[in-house]
Amino acid sequence: MSVRDRLIDNWLDTNQYYTEHSGKRVYYLSLEYLLGRSLTNSVSNMELEGPLAEALMELGYDLENLSQMEKDAALGNGGLGRLAACFLDSMATMNIPGWGYGLRYNYGIFRQILRDGYQAEIPDYWLNYGNPWEIDNAEVFYGIRFGGHVNVTGDGRRVWEGGEVVQAVACDYPIPGFKTRNTNNLRLWRSRPGDEFNLDSFNQGDYLGACEDRQSAENISSVLYPADNTQQGKTLRLKQEYFFTAASLRDILRRYRKKGQLEKMSDFVVIQLNDTHPALAIPEMMRLLMDEEGFGWEEAWAISSKCFAFTNHTVLPEALEKWNVDLLHEVLPRHMEIIYEINHRFLEVVRAKFPGQTDMVQRMSIIEEGGGKRVRMANLAIVGSFTVNGVAALHSQLLIETIFRDFHALWPEKFQNKTNGVTPRRWILQCNKPLSDILNKWLETSEWPSKLELLSGLRQHIGHPELQREWSSMKLQAKKKLAAYIEKELGIKVDCNAMFDMHCKRIHEYKRQLLNILSVIHRYLQLKKMSAAERKEQVGRVVIFSGKAAPAYYMAKLIIKLITAVGDVVNVDADIGDKLKVVFIPNYSVSLAEIIIPACDLSQHISTAGTEASGTSNMKFAMNGGLIVGTLDGANIEIREEIGTENMFIFGARSHEIEHLRSENRLGRLKIPRSLRVVLEAINGGMFGEAHIFQPILDSILQNNDVYLVTADFASYLEVQDRIDTTWKDKASWNRMCMLSVAGSGKFSSDRTIAEYANDIWKVKPARVPKEWNTSDAIRNALQKK
Q1: Domain for residue 154, yes or no?
Q2: Is 93 a catalytic residue?
Q3: Please, which residues have CB within 8 angstroms of residue 558's CB and are 6 or more apart in sequence?
């Protein structure tokens, strides 16, 4: 609360300063924000660490121990949410006038535990003891409608009425910048019923029914990404997406009206859609402008289409979000009308530009025909936005060559690339203090956390013996910390002199944890064949996995089971000893990543080429000196350009080869290497438990359904693992590569990414709050009430 008091002072001053002095504002709409712990971030960014640690010491407390008691905010899941959090940090640090908008979840996605080696999901009760960083603005709320019907008034105006109204209530999170007073805002919406309690139902003896509306309303902000394999789940997820976008637009319009006329809104407002989850903001903006503000279609579209920008995060066609038309019509009848009209007018443009191209018209239509009509949310986002960007050079290129090829032919000027980045404040300064101390000393400056390009200065010192010693000590210290955590939480002892080989990210077939664990089995089988003397000469590895699988994603959860089953066998094999350990650390989170990443020797980023949009964990590991083994996919390509091919371990098929290899696999012409067959035989023979459990995994490879090409890349992956082992034996060479990895990471600061967004898309200028600026007490009190 002491830290928060100082944070709120800056937060209030910043918002009032923006109101009086800034021009354009950025509004970032994202369904998730993976913030992590806020105490260490706030203390570091506001430069309070020394005074706070001193004050706590006088009271008999240690700041580091206390900060570890804070639970991670359960507001996100994976890279999408962590990227959003990094972007908010960079916007505040760079004094960009910006707000984030999202949902305030009661339970987040889930807390992951292991039961008999399987992932189990339990609620994440992160709010049990309150949340001191949240400012509950109960006086800021909006009624959000679902269902109902559309009436036409006598003057032809369309009015959406009836149905259910749920209130969106504002909860604010101050986001401090680094070494600046600017403290931006993240406004999250929690849901509550329009009517708190149905007394009529209660008095008639329907006690459960009396609470039903309340429960239905509160469900909207209960869980991130409810499973959508049921109709109820689909409906809830659709409601979530509309709920937060509708409340956010109402809030944006309310704030903008202080500036001037709606016709000029795009001069002062830019709304960034983080993937397709907020795409319903486009028809909602049209509804607000036409039905509530009285604009005609052309005027409303002229305003709306200049305000939205869209970031795409996938190249997989099956991952593009689509909603059943019947469901959309049931939940959002007015929006379905507007979407049809947007599509009708858009297709007229397409037909005029490409006459006779019927197939192209069908591909570009917002409404997908056949097998039940569905709304293609990516198409809607492209049509309704003035800019579309990918998140890595390869990803952006693949977008315009594949899934968005037709749109690029129509609007080539709309498409841009903005390679992702991560905040070095969180991912070096806060999580890796020993590395930060090394950088401060050898770079002779403490400015690098906001000028990450300064890391390149490390190159001139790499050969210095003292730096080599400090580097080895720093890495060993981090590994001991992680080893202690593993022993305490999992009861597994690991050798800190072994290579810590990490694959930590969301569990998904395209990220190929399966390829990794199959290679681990190969390593184990090879070790078993060796004599004791031969084994002694082998490189020791601690192979660490961590990450969550979506609750309904059967294959991903089965891969977790295979990993844990292999660990159960390998970790107790006395013949192998410390030459190989397999560890799955459950419930991967920001705070857990802050322990894992500094301890990494080798990090796995081995997605099938052309499937990973960017990746940001590769950046975090690289800037902490973890060497990357990976395919030429996503941002790995740009990382290679910055740190050098010789400082990474690249393998596997290239993106232009993938479709041919998949075709060969489907036709049964892709040969399974003997080394892989031996591994599959070991699984099928029951070495890691009952074989039938893993039959779907075996079938995916043996039955020509290897979509992510484990078969094609397996031999190449084993070859690069041999090269890794050879390199590891020369510790001076390994450390040199690690230092060069850090030195080449300057490009991958989210500050660089945000500067590109601000200059190329948002056209927004920084507005730094002066040191002497102070909001008056009267205004301060009014702001606090809002």
Answers
A1: yes
A2: no
A3: 693, 694, 696, 697
Tell me whether residue 616 is one of the annotated catalytic residues. Answer: yes
Q: Do 354 and 474 lie in a common domain?
A: no
| Residue from 181, 255, 277, 505 carrying the catalytic annotation | 505
State the catalytic residue, choosing from 620, 640, 747, 752.
Answer: 620
Q: Tens digit of pLDDT for each residue in 625-653?
A: 999 999 999 999 999 999 999 999 999 99
The catalytically annotated residue of 239, 287, 503, 511 is 511
Q: Which of 187, 190, 313, 414 is catalytic?
A: 313
For the question of residue 506 being annotated catalytic, the response is yes
Please, is 668 exposed, middle or buried when counting C-beta atoms within 10 Å of its C-beta (0-12, 13-18, 19+)?
exposed
How confident is the model over 440-467, as a mean pLDDT? 97
Q: What does DSSP say about strands 269-274 and 322-324: parallel, antiparallel, or unpaired?
A: unpaired
502 domain-assigned: yes
Other Cβ atoms less than 10 A from the Cβ of 143: the count is 12
Q: What is the pLDDT of residue 317?
A: 82
Q: Looking at residues 206-229, what average pLDDT do you find?
A: 77
The question of whether 239 is a catalytic residue gets the answer no
Least confident of 144-153, 202-211, 364-373: 202-211
CA end-to-end span of the chain: 20
* Active-site residue, from 14, 616, 753, 775: 616
A 10 A CB-CB count for 457 gives: 16
Q: Which of 334, 418, 475, 506 is catalytic?
A: 506
511 is catalytic: yes
Distance CA(168)–CA(220), nearest Å, equals: 10
Residue 587: domain span: 424-748
Active site residue 234: no
